[in-house]
């Protein structure tokens, strides 16, 4: 059987091909799955998609009509998939429920330290042989407060690093993580965490209950000199409200690896095109903001685990097995 994989990055393609070797053929496309590209999947029983695929009801209907029966998503998040429509159409859907939490946690810290120590500004200056220190002053993380919203595997990994810095630890989640509590984390209401934290980092999934978890009111409750980091999902932050606060001169730094309207932008080269998203265009102009293109997960370790699990999900489907990765079981 030949599998069609959408949204495959250049670094990812040889890994996918090697992983599927001896099991199935795989055809890799760099285009993302959406309403326009869905007809390409006609005749493919199994397809694989990336987190930026658009798997709404119309796309799923096109896939089902073309003979697709299984979707193997190469990500943990699945907010881009209409699961109810997939079940109605008899489509099996699986995801990657786990990969290296250190990849995302370490990158979240990379963003935090980059904005704290003005690394991008310093690098730009030195390329022009400007070696002044004016405007580059940062702060020690030691002794300051880290607020972790979401203390699952990634949040725990972030917390361990914060503990190593010697920070006071605050956490917020629907359930306490004993490993974080052992490190000295105190679980508090979200409002208290935002008000007391010098560094706020987001590690919760995007669901209806968490969309705009950081809204205008939450942003206003944060310290004026706080650092905000989001390496989870863009929809967790009300970006328009964030821009308003940045325009008011608030926050030491903001590090964003995700953006709520990133579909159609991230993972693509738009350097020769006009960006019609006024909010994003304004966001990247702030000197205390660093935006990266959803790359926190992008390490050899994590991508290797994602691909290994994806292959396993396809093999489970063909063998009629079901695992914890299945979101919609085979009918």
TrEMBL record:
Protein name, UniProt field: 2-hydroxyacid dehydrogenase
Chain ranges of the D-isomer specific 2-hydroxyacid dehydrogenase catalytic domain: 8-327
PROSITE patterns according to UniProt: D_2_HYDROXYACID_DH_1, D_2_HYDROXYACID_DH_3
Family: Belongs to the D-isomer specific 2-hydroxyacid dehydrogenase family.
Annotated GO MF terms: D-lactate dehydrogenase (NAD+) activity
Organism encoding this protein: Streptomyces griseosporeus
Alphabetized UniProt keyword annotations: NAD, Oxidoreductase
EC number from the UniProt entry: 1.1.1.28
Keyword Oxidoreductase: yes
């Amino acid at each position: 059987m030949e599998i069609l994989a959408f949204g495959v990055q250049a670094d990812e393609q040889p890994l996918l091909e090697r992983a599927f070797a001896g099991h199935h053929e795989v055809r890799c496309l760099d285009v993302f799955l959406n309403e326009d590209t869905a007809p390409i999947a006609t005749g493919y029983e199994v397809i694989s998609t990336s987190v930026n695929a658009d798997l709404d009801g119309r796309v799923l209907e096109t896939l089902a009509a073309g003979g697709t029966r299984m979707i193997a998503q190469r990500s943990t998040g699945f907010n881009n998939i209409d699961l109810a429509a997939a079940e109605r159409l008899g489509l099996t859907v699986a995801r990657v429920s786990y990969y290296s939490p250190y990849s995302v946690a370490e990158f979240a810290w990379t963003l935090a330290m980059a904005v704290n120590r003005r690394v991008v500004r310093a690098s730009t200056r030195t390329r022009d042989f400007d070696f002044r220190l004016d405007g580059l002053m940062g702060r020690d993380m030691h002794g300051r407060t880290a607020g972790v919203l979401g203390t699952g595997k990634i949040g725990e990994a972030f917390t361990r690093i914060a503990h190593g810095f010697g920070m006071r630890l605050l956490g917020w989640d629907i359930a306490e993580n004993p490993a974080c509590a052992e490190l000295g984390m105190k679980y508090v209401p979200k409002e208290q965490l935002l008000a007391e934290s010098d560094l706020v980092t987001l590690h919760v999934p995007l669901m209806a209950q968490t969309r705009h978890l950081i809204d205008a009111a939450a942003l206003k409750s944060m310290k004026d000199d706080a650092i905000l980091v989001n390496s989870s999902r863009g929809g967790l932050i009300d970006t328009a409200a964030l821009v308003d606060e940045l325009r008011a001169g608030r926050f030491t730094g903001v590090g964003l690896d995700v953006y709520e309207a990133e579909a159609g932008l991230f993972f693509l080269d738009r350097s020769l095109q006009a960006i019609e998203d006024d909010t994003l265009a304004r966001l990247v102009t702030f000197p205390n903001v660093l935006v990266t293109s959803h790359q926190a997960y992008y390490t050899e370790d994590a991508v290797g685990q994602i691909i290994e699990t994806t292959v396993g999900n396809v093999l489970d489907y063909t063998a009629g097995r079901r695992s914890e990765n299945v979101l919609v079981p085979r009918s």
